[in-house]
Structure formats: structure tokens, C-alpha cells
Request: fold
Amino acid sequence: MKQYDIVIIGGGPAGLAAAVAAKEEGIDNLLILERDTELGGILNQCIHNGFGLHTFKEELTGPEYAQRFIDKTEELKIPYKLNTMVIDINENKVITAVNEEDGIIEINAKAIILAMGCRERPRGAINIPGGRCSGIYSAGTAQKFVNIEGFMPGKEVVILGSGDIGLIMARRMTLEGAKVKAVVELMPYSGGLKRNIVQCLDDFDIPLKLSHTVTNIKGKNRVEGVTIAKVDENRRPIKGSEQYIPCDTLLLSVGLIPENELSTKANVDLSPVTGGPQVNESLQTNIEGVFACGNVLHVHDLVDNVTTESINAGKSAANYVKGKQFANGGIEVVATDGARYTVPRYININNIDKLIDVRFRVGDVYKDSYISVYFDDVREIHRKKRILTPGEMETVKLTREMFEKYPECKKITVKVEGE
Reply:
């Protein structure tokens, strides 16, 4: 059995940033395992710009952003295995993986960083009635077809879901000559970033139909059209509001799910809200020496935030290998009253140098509201926001001085308040 200090599962933006950080902390005996044919993860197919504004202070495309970290990985001589599928992790941090070259391999790691990313929710998870005809793709699959394979999925397109991938593909399909007839969104608000609504829909006169859903798919061999309908406050279709749209392609942008089958096998506690691991301030899970970062932890809107988080995970894993213990538990962080979840879930003040970022998402659209943070029953932060939307991640910074101010604090609460 091969022995490594740190094994990083996933060679996308999260895994690469974590590996670089761990190496720069002095850990030489580490390994990246990646199931794809090359490093870079999902960024390789995200050829649009808008990446890197925070990390590199310049605007890059997805492949350019990924290449910065791939180059750094090569420069630091960090070893990695491609085309390698991890099939099991146990609580003793023994990893079982398989590839064509080595066959089945077992690796014992002192620390593991989970950076497997996320996958798209498929049609089967949302139960749309209609035939099982061709022409139905997830938005990410269509993105790979167009940007990497050079293949157009169709010419007349309806997109269900207004997440960022769906919005970006509305623009991409339009630029490639397709007609995007509508972006249909179940909720009364878009799930994507405001800038993507403007740049991808408004700039191309693509209609966004909020509080609508697809109620039927027509077609035997190929999609011929879809029926959409308005929904009520309980998200049920309203009879009489149906509208038929002829099309040959339906793209689904209906949510992302963290890839946590391996986490489950390692008995990592998962959040019922995000589907990702519950972590402390050092991004350690409930299993000692197992850390998590990136979209496998919670779905991010900006890759720059993935990088920041993953660098912290890499540093924490390196410190763990050097002998530092990150106690589980600590002060519990609770999301309530509009806030859906927080990362981290627990905070141990002894592991905080100056401050810690607590990230969260809201569950609805709030205008002229306040983000409030309570240490037990005392409100410490009360920050006004003109608008809060589920599509944009929020961050509150908790300083060490705040924790020292409340030495007996048992619970930190993050909430949305009207005043």
C-alpha cells in the first residue's frame, strides 16, 4: 500500500489550489487524483470570461484561470494521476482507486482533501412528463458539446432553469446561431448572478419567464416542442395558463448536487441543506484529517471564492500532517430567518488568526434588509443590503476580537432582518 501525507481527490480549481497551498506549506509527499483526462475540471469548458477578478485582478476565461494553477502545479512538481477513479474511502483514510495503467491501487493518506466538485441534477430528479425522446440535455453537457466537442445540440432551444450555467448557455447557443425561445424558471426569481441575467439574456432579447415550468415534452424520436405553464405560490401549474413552444432541444439548468458518494463512504456528516460535508473553521469534517473545499462542500457562484476556500483547506491539511489537531465541535453557527446554511458549521477560536469568513446563501429575494450576526443573544453585526438573492453567496467576516468579546459564547446565529 502506497503512503502519502496528503491526497487530494479532484484536480479541478479546488483540488489544484489546495494542492498548491499544501506544497507551499512544505508538504512534499502529496498526490492529486483526477478521473478526467486532464487537470482543470469544469473550467476547461467555461470559455466565457469573468474569472479571476478577485484572485488575479484581471478578467480571464475559465481555461486561462485553470491554466494558472496547472502551471503552478507543474512548477512545484506536484504529482498527479489522471484517468484515475476513486471508488472508496474508509474512516482510516485508506483510498481505493482504479486506472488503466495501475489497475486497482490502495493508498494510505495521513490527510485527505475532498475536492470532487458537483454534478447537475438530471431530468429524472424533477419528473417532467412526456416522452423519452432525444434532444434533452443538461446545460453543462450542452456546454461541453459546443465548447469542447464542437457539436451543436440543436437549433431551436428552450432552457428550463435560470442558474448560471443555463443563462450562460442561452448566450452561447445564440452566438452559435441557435434560436433560444425562452428561459423558464420555476421560482419567482432567477437562480443566477445578476450580471449573467443582463449579459446573457437582456443583451440578446431572450425572454425570462419567472414562475413558470415545463409541464410536458412532445416528441417521439426527437423533441418537437414543450408545454410551459405559470405556477402558483405552491409551485403548482395553473390550469389555463399553458403555452406550447415548438423546439428541437430542451436544456436543463435545474440545480447542482455536490459529488459526495465518497464522503458518505468515509462516514462524513453531510448537511441536509447543501448536500456537502459539515466542516469547522479549518474546513475539517467530522472525520479527523479529512478536509473539504470547493463545490463538493457547497455550490459556489465565483471560482475566486473556491480558490480562497481551497487554499485554507490545503494549509489546514498541511498543518494537520505536521501535528496540529483541529478539535471537532466548537461554537455552533446556525442559519435561520432567511439564511439557509453556513460554512463553516462550527468555529474553534483557537484556530483563528485574525478573522474568518462565514459564507451563506439566503432562501428568497430580500430588498433593503439587514444581515445580522448574533453571539448568543447579542447582535454584533447588522449590515444593510440593498438586495439579497439566492443566486449570490454572501459573506460575513468574524474577527478574533469579536470572539474574545464573548468568551462564553455557545452559539452564533446568522439571519436576515427587516430592520
In short: Helices lie at 13-24, 62-75, 139-149, 164-175, 194-201, 261-265, 303-321, 400-405. The mean pLDDT is 95. The two ends are 59 Å apart (CA to CA).
